[in-house]
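Narrative of activities, Objective 1.

The group set out to show that a structural description can be obtained from nothing but a protein's sequence at a throughput compatible with the screening campaign. Below is one input-output pair from the validation batch, recorded exactly as produced.
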Amino acid sequence: MADITRKEIERRVNRRESLKEIDMTGLDLNEFNFQGAIFYKCKFSGSSINFSNFAFSRFEGCLLNDCEMHESHFQESSFFECDFSKSAMRDSILKEVNFRQSILHATDFSGSFLENIILIDAEGELCDFSFSTFSESDLTRSKFQVCDFNSCHAVGLIADSTDFTGSEFKGAKMDYSNLKNS
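Output recorded for this entry:
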């Protein structure tokens, strides 16, 4: 159960306070404005965070598993060493977002737009990127095993030494992409 209320989170985010080691499990954070927020080792497990704004926010070592994050907006956000296992981020817009060393097991990005995304050293199994658009994104040294990239469109994707074992790319367009050593 959550240690804090939505209203208290809003107050602290608006005051630009860093939130550290707070349990926000199962909270309704739909249409929440995380703009400029900083979270360190916080737990959002099972929270509903649909239609939210994550612009310029920073999350480090946070647990965001089993979250619903549909149609959210992420711009210049950082999620370093975060766990998004079984989270749904369908139909979201992600621009210049850093997911370095994050865990993305069974994460659903289907139908999302991903521009200048950094997924270096990220790990994911059973991820769904179907019908997504990648533009100038970097998946270097990542593991995306048994993932669905069907019908995705990638322009300028860099995936050097990336493990795509068992992943499907049926109908995918990989224009000007570099999949060297993958």
